[in-house]
Write a structure and sequence with these properties.
The chain contains twelve helices and ten strands. Pathway: Protein modification; protein glycosylation.
């Protein structure tokens, strides 16, 4: 801008000399014509300078300087538009000012990205359920401030057909976590899952265990976990249903989350190793109590709940803020849930072409 202003000053000084010479040599008519052309030239050059500054603002939108060059650029644009056309600020100036406010708000609310491993406990024979879950999670919008990896956790396939199917799914989707165990629910699978994840060499901020009849809303989970402690966290739905004290019993197996340090503790401590047989969610509560860990316990009632058709004290109608819905054991319940959460994003199937 300083260079441009100097150029403008020289232009004005030289133009006065030229005008004086023309006035003496050719009289007033030619002088008037020359002045009109010069005014048009100055107006066009002013317009170009304004747009040059505008481009500078966009390029510098993410710069960090104590003098705030972004705001200086906006003020420069406003002054330039006012001087060039004498009117109030144009829509372009207003839009850039709003953009600056958005950038400022975005930078002030930026959160650290968290990583989550969501492990769905499922039998290797349930290929159809895995296909449904891949669709249910695949169509969801990305979780804010969270990188959530959904994996299907199976024990060793038994038949050749199961081995073939699981092997092909691994090649196609790369989302199968095969554990060194016989398929089970309450005979150590959860312990093998958590201890195996701890030994994989990939660190997550949080590890979640959930069932294949549960549906997790990834955006809501990510937003919720981004506000939680990064250490010593035991998060889920505290039982029984009427219990409101997260320290009173244990988190239901429909879905619970452990911070990474607790996952490592499960791998290293002799307490889980020596007590891995029994109802898996209750065992986990016993482990952390016996070890004196999991001081940060968070119950997410009523955003974890059973499907309303299941009934009972743990169920209620679907709500948009849902983090997890459990007891989806029928196609009708899955259809109800997916229609509720995705109806506005999925167009009903229509013929691509009407033939008369």
């Amino acid at each position: 801008m300083i260079k441009s202003c100097c150029c403008c000053c020289r232009m004005r000084k030289s133009s006065r000399l030229v005008i004086s010479d023309l006035a003496q040599a050719h009289g007033f008519p030619l002088l008037l014509l020359f002045c009109m052309g010069l005014l048009l030239l100055i107006r066009n050059s002013s317009f170009m300078i304004c747009h040059h500054v505008s481009g500078g603002f966009i390029r510098n939108a993410n710069s960090s300087s104590s003098s705030n060059p972004d705001r200086d650029s906006v003020l420069g644009i406003q002054e330039c538009h006012k001087n060039s056309n004498g009117s109030r600020f144009t829509n372009e100036t207003v839009l850039l000012s709003e953009n600056e406010e958005q950038i400022s708000a975005s930078s002030s609310t930026t959160k650290k990205l968290i990583t989550v491993l969501l492990g769905v406990m499922i039998s290797s024979v349930k290929m159809e359920r895995r296909s449904l879950l891949r669709l249910a999670y695949g169509v969801q919008n990305a979780a804010p401030f969270a990188d959530i990896a959904v994996n299907f956790v199976v024990c060793k396939p038994e038949s050749q057909h199961e081995k073939l199917v699981v092997g092909m799914e691994r090649l196609q989707y790369n989302d199968m976590l095969v554990l060194d165990c016989e398929e089970n629910m309450n005979h150590g699978k959860t312990f093998v899952y958590l201890s195996s994840v701890a030994a994989m060499g990939i660190r997550y901020d949080y590890v979640m265990k959930t069932d294949d009849d549960s549906y997790v809303r990834l955006q809501n989970l990510g937003s919720s976990l981004s506000e939680q402690p990064r250490n010593d966290l035991y998060y889920g739905y505290i039982l029984p249903c009427e219990n409101q004290d997260a320290h009173a019993w244990y988190m239901a197996g429909m879905g619970y989350v452990l911070s990474w340090d607790l996952v490592e503790w499960v791998h290293d401590s002799p307490i889980p190793k020596n007590n891995s047989e029994g109802t898996e969610d209750r065992l986990l509560g016993e482990w952390v109590n016996a070890g004196g860990v999991a001081k940060n316990r968070v119950s997410m009632k009523p955003l974890f709940y059973d499907h309303p058709d299941f009934g009972g004290e743990c169920s209620h109608p679907l709500v948009p803020e849902t983090i997890l819905v459990h007891q989806l054991k029928t196609p009708q319940r899955w259809s109800h849930v997916l229609s509720f959460f995705e109806h506005d994003r999925i167009d009903l199937l229509k013929p691509a072409l009407m033939i008369s």
